[in-house]
Amino acid sequence: MDIELLKEKWTLKKKDTASERAAWDSVAGDYLHTERHSFSSDSFLRFVDEKASPDSAMKVLDVGCGAGAYSMAFAGRCESVDGVDLSAEMIRLAEGYASSHGISNARFSVCDWHSCDPGSFRGRYDLVFAHNTPAIGDFDSFMKLISSSRKYCFMSRPARRTDSVFDRVREIAGIVPDGTDTIPLIFEILWELGSSPEFRYDKTVWTDERSPDDAATWYLGRLRGQFDIDGPTERKIRSFLSDIAVDGKVREITETTVVSIFWTVDDIKKTYM
Q1: Which residue, of 38, 91, 203, 253, has the greatest Cβ tally within 10 A?
Q2: For residues 145 and 74, what is the distance between their CA atoms, to the nearest angstrom?
Q3: Is residue 251 within 8 Å of residue 209, measured between CB atoms?
Q4: What is the rounded distance in angstroms from the CA atom of residue 145 to the CA atom of residue 136?
Q5: 103-104-107 Cα angle (round to 5)
Q6: Taking Cα atoms as reference points, which of 29, 15, 19 lies closest to residue 216?
Q7: Could you tell me which of 40, 19, 31, 48 has the C-alpha nearest to residue 83?
Q8: Of 242, 254, 252, 236, nearest in space to 171 by CA
Q9: Which residue, 56, 63, 96, is CA-closest to 82?
Q10: Which DSSP string do the residues of 165-203 spell out, in sequence order?
Q11: How confident is the model at residue 16 (pLDDT cuts 50, 70, 90)?
């Protein structure tokens, strides 16, 4: 498929960024570094280790870094790590963790990857990655990731995903999935650019519990990042969340296959960089 057609096929319409930011701010504490975020135990980090062997000479960029869980792991291996995220609360927690643990080679900044200047990042890093983040949501944000790297690129995102609560919330809001699976699109783009990406698949189950009010902030904020949600629809969603709460908690079960992708920029056609 022609690259311009792929670009047209993978688009994202941003709506209310403030609500989206508030949604991610509300869950920032869930994204702190823990012992499981290590190169020995985390599936994504093992994949990175197998393909790129991060070392002390590398400069790394973590796109959509959250509260720095993966940035901290790279900081223990690499010369430096820069993490960027839409959520100011995520960045505050990442900076706090780095400071309290004496990590001086990890730097963090608030940045909406969809609107930031690509020239600020172009070709500055040996390894760039984006782990399960909406920061890479369309062709342009994907190309921005690629252009930031001198060598290695990694990305992971959920596919074939079902969310026991959020899927129902979308139905109440009248949001019908467009049927676009971005994993084939990403492969087609990379293939068209001259690359031969490699993939890893991990079947995963996530569970979360939030109060009805916190759940409403989370779901409504994410929806408003792309869609208009009116007052009556918001009230229906809040009522639904209150109705399904058990012992004051809304429990979400997400089943998905996390797809991790690796490629190098060596073979990328320079026309598109």
Answers
A1: 91
A2: 17
A3: yes
A4: 8
A5: 100
A6: 19
A7: 31
A8: 236
A9: 63
A10: THHHHHHHTTPPP----HHHHHHHHHHHTT---EEEEEE
A11: confident
169-179 pLDDT per residue, tens: 999 999 987 66
Give the pLDDT confidence of 185-230 residue by residue, as tens digits: 999 999 999 999 999 999 999 999 999 999 999 999 999 999 999 9
CATH of the structural domain 3-160+179-205+258-272, one choice from 3.90.78.10, 3.40.50.150, 3.10.20.310, 3.40.50.720: 3.40.50.150
**Tokens standing for 198?**
């490699």
Asked if 173 and 233 touch (Cβ cutoff 8 Å), the reply is yes
pTM of the model: 0.94
Q: How is the chain split into domains, by residue range?
A: 3-160+179-205+258-272
Q: What is the Cα–Cα distance from 245 to 14, expressed in whole angstroms?
A: 30
Task: Give me the sheet containing 198-210, strands edge to edge.
Answer: 106-110, 80-85, 59-63, 125-131, 149-163, 250-264, 198-210
Task: Tell me which residue of 115, 90, 89, 91 sits closest to 17, measured CA to CA.
Answer: 115
Cα distances from 245 to residues 56, 173, 242, 248, 250, in angstroms, run 48, 19, 5, 5, 5
Q: Looking at residue 1, what is its pLDDT?
A: 65
CB-based contacts of 132, cutoff 8 Å, min separation 6: 156, 157, 158, 258
**Closest by CA position to 155, among listed 130, 181, 136:** 130
Residue 216 vs residues 19, 30, 100, 242: alpha-carbon distances, Å: 11, 17, 32, 9
**Distance separating alpha carbons of residues 226 and 116, to the nearest angstrom:** 18
